[in-house]
Amino acid sequence: MARRSLPLLKHLLSSSSSSTTPTLRRSVTYMPRPGDGEPRPVTLIPGDGIGPLVTNAVEQVMEAMHAPVYFEKYEVHGDMMRVPSEVMESIKKNKVCLKGGLTTPMGGGVSSLNLQLRKELDLYASLVNCFNLQGLPTRHQNVDIVVIRENTEGEYAGLEHEVVPGVVESLKVITKFCSERIAKYAFEYAYLNNRKKVTAVHKANIMKLADGLFLESCREVATKYPGIKYNEIIVDNCCMQLVSKPEQFDVMVTPNLYGNLVANTAAGIAGGSGVMPGGNVGADHAIFEQGASAGNVGNEKLLEQKTANPVAVLLSSAMMLRHLQFPSFADRLETAVKQTDWVDTHFAAPLTKTFAGAAQKFHLPTHGNQWRALYVCKANYAPLSPISFLERSATVYRDRTSVVYGSLKFTWAETHQRCLKLASALSQLGISRGDVQNGEKGDITSNLVSLRCSVFALSIILLGVNLFILKVAALAPNVPAMYELHFAVPMAGAVFCTLNTRHDSNMVSILLEHSEAKIIFVDHQLLDLARGALDLLEKTGTKSPMVVLISESDGSSPTGFSSSSYEYESLLENGHSGFEIRQPESEWDPISINYTSGTTSRPKGVVYSHRGAYLNTLATLFLHGIGTMPVYLWTVPMFHCNGWCLTWGMAAQGGANVCLRKVSPKDIFDSIDQHKVTHMAGAPTVLSMIVNSAMEELGFGVSHLYGLTETYGPGTYCSWKPEWDSLPLNERSKMKARQGVQHLGLEDVDVKDPVTMESVPADGKTIGEIMLRGNTVMSGYLKDSKATEDAFRGGWFRSGDLAVKHSDGYIEVKDRAKDIVITGGENVCTLEVETVLYNHPAILEVAVVGRPDDLWDKPLDRLPRYMAPRTVIFEDLPRNSTGKVQKFILREKAKALGSLFRMPYHFDMDDAWTDERTTVYVNSFFTRN
Predict the structure, then answer these.
(1) What gap in Å lies between CA 252 and CA 497, rounded to an integer?
(2) Which spans are transmembrane here (predicted)?
(3) What is the 3-state secondary structure (H, E, C) of 798-820?
């Protein structure tokens, strides 16, 4: 499908076309969407006074950095009666305008052209960002305030008349619609840009009806954003607080007149109105210009010297570039401006004279005019997405086996058709990009694409346009439907949210509420689990998702979930195989949400992008030497990191997916023998099922991976070296047990001191934290900006895992940071203790955690005294779906035991190594100081 070139602010926080008031209910999640990169026309109005000087500087900077925009320049001056019609047509056509300052005439006779532009284009939101710039001396530091004011009503509505000679009446108009619209805009801006607080500025103590209505609207909207702090302040107190303590403010939302006062005050505090960027935006158009008062427009001295400070317009241009979906250009320009030391209030004259001056001042590359004709367009750029693999396989491997499940088999042509029909059916149910209005069963509603965005943010986390994207959840094992959903859901334009089948109903309900899934696909064997989760949602007043029942292929499963549920195969048959795939608007669009396993805390929603999934898929295929038409045995849950992205990888290579509902040694060996399996993967718990002799003797080639949900699964790979083949078995085992070097999809992996961010020595002894960065690191945690910030602090993803780096550059994991125990002043890696205990033939599984105590007791003779466990408890170990022990649960149990008691004298720790009655239990749980 051809990519749409909609403006960034299309449908920005506005109601749907069928509604007269904006909706208040937040039911969507936003993700970044860089654009298609085609050169875009922009209407340029240099304006009055110094306007031509500063806009000319912008033109030269754009030329120097080869920005993919070109200007349509028009002369407009403040003394005109109206903006010329050809200028208005240009803005309406281009959707975007960059404007210098226009003088606003005083008194009667000539109306404000700025007011005309805002009214005719419905530019209802004015945004000004006031923040400290390097080198600008100010009374306050850490100022970063965003002022958002309503632009179309209030005192600036222009409703004035002379009642009788000498008496003029000026009307202030406040409406519910516009108040809700600007309030929701402010809260959405805060939500998108990781802002923590919204402050409503008012004068409701005097204007009880007008400002009272504004406050009422803000309060209603605030209830839909519980994660954002909301407060109110009277405008006169606000000005005083701004001057005395500006750092207390974050996002401020105001009616028209107050916003003008507040924005200019904040700008003056942060360094001056001439350096603050801004924009006036609406549903279809945007005008970017100096943010605060353009009082310097007619400065005769600046005009005479032909020097002016273009910082405000340059930063506004960066906002414009991001709006036009060129985030990399926006970042370069924005960073250059911020890194420049602004000692003088005026800009050096060379900037307005030469391209080289602009490039040097802003640290921009000057490649010469020979590069000017090169740019990104649809002919040489398409968003990376793994759903493209399926279309290719349907052609290249048309009649080859795609899916095997018991006696059921599909070809790639059939899988392609089934996924198209399922995507079509989802679309008919209202699942795609945009808001959804779900009718009763049988009432299939259509859905319009709804784009929303963050207009600007100089410290933005989510870049560019953001989409309303709906989630489709699945609670199912490795069955064909689960595989098909990995393609069908993103083909419909939605995000696939996989749920762990080992969760209980309470956790499933929590994740459904958190993900805001509109539909959940439930395997027939998990009906009771799903029922319990939906019952809990109903009790909390949360709307439950629609249910689609995945029946067993032989028809032996239950008949249905409820009268309002759908059945998978019936739903699929209602779809159309000619469905036009909804390709991602951008490769940064989210493709899936995978919740962390909860080994150390409550699960977090990890967001994967189409780009990351695509790159991780190819990297995994290449790194493991998976060639064409492999046979892959599904022992890794598809709900875990999307099966490490091999769900899409098998389509890329035309492989056969051998699906197993349950994993057992018999099923594994039978499948390997029957289907001639070439590849499989699994957690250590899976491999332990089939290890009765050395893996090499069984004909397996074992590769060791380390990774996290946040890295799309694999983060490192223990790349084997031929010279290690001749090492003794125990030495080879030690080499293979290391976690290795970075996966091909990652740029870098390092072991660092988490405080100094310095790399630890490559001595195999010094412990640091594993940190990763690259294209296959998550986009972030769903609706958890604090956790995302913490994880990416310092420009690396912080894994929370501790490791050492060996002299050959290979890393070796030692423990989780949370699992380190301090005893006797020493740091103890619980993994080392577990390794020693695993050497005992009677111990199958063991986990070690710590609990507070001052006492010492008899150590094990194979460990230093401080490592010796103090308490031994025998019980089942709590595990997640990947087989990892959930030590946070064990730590809570250890705390509940209270202070350490000494072991009974008749229990000898030495006997624990010889007494089978003591150690024969399948799961053993050790705690120690």
Answers:
(1) 35
(2) 455-476, 613-634
(3) EEEEEEEECCCCCEEEEEEHHHC
State the amino acid at position 644 in one-letter form.
Answer: W
**Residue 646 to residue 650: CA distance in whole angstroms:** 6
Give the span between the Cα atoms of 456 and 461, in whole angstroms: 11
DSSP-derived pairing of the beta strands 465-467 and 451-453: antiparallel
Blockwise average pLDDT, block size 10, the chain, 929 residues:
31 32 31 50 90 87 83 89 92 93 65 84 91 79 91 77 84 91 91 89 93 95 90 94 93 92 89 83 90 58 59 90 82 77 43 37 41 58 91 94 96 97 91 41 24 20 37 95 96 94 92 93 95 94 92 64 76 91 87 79 86 94 91 94 94 96 88 92 72 58 82 85 82 78 86 91 90 91 86 89 89 73 58 72 73 47 54 71 68 64 34 27 26
What token pair was written down for 533? 């989760």
Gap between the Cα atoms of 330 and 32, Å rounded: 14
* DSSP letter string, 54-104: HHHHHHHHHHHTT-SEEEEE----TTSSS--HHHHHHHHHHSEEEE-----
Q: Domain 149-268, what fold?
A: Rossmann fold (3.40.50)
Rounded Cα gap, residues 816 and 830, in angstroms? 9
- Whose structure tokens read 């007008």? 210
CATH superfamily of 703-819: Luciferase; Domain 3 (2.30.38.10)
Decide: 670 and 687 in contact? Cβ < 8 Å: no
Cα three-residue angle 541-18-29, rounded to 5 degrees: 50
CATH top-level class of 625-699: alpha beta
Cα-based distances in Å from 794 to 199, 609, 767, 788, 790: 30, 22, 19, 12, 9
Helices (H), 774-820: 785-792
Report the distance separating Cα 762 and Cα 809, nearest Å: 7
Output the CA torsion sign for 774, 780, 785, 786: negative
Q: What angle do CA 498, 591, 788 make, to 5 degrees?
A: 85
Domain ranges of the chain: 40-136+271-340, 149-268, 408-449+467-583, 625-699, 703-819, 826-928
Taking alpha carbons only, the member of 426, 440, 585, 427 closest to residue 520 is 426
Angle at CA of residue 642, ends 744 and 587, nearest 5°:
65
CATH of 40-136+271-340, one of 3.90.550.10, 3.40.718.10, 3.40.50.2000, 3.40.50.720: 3.40.718.10
Does the CA dihedral 398-401-405-406 come out positive or negative?
positive
- Tell me which residue of 335, 282, 291, 589 sits closest to 462, measured CA to CA: 589
- Residue (of 291, 308, 292, 288) closest to 50 by Cα position: 308
**CATH number listed for the domain at residues 408-449+467-583:** 3.40.50.980
Helices (H) and strands (E) in the chain, counts: 27, 40
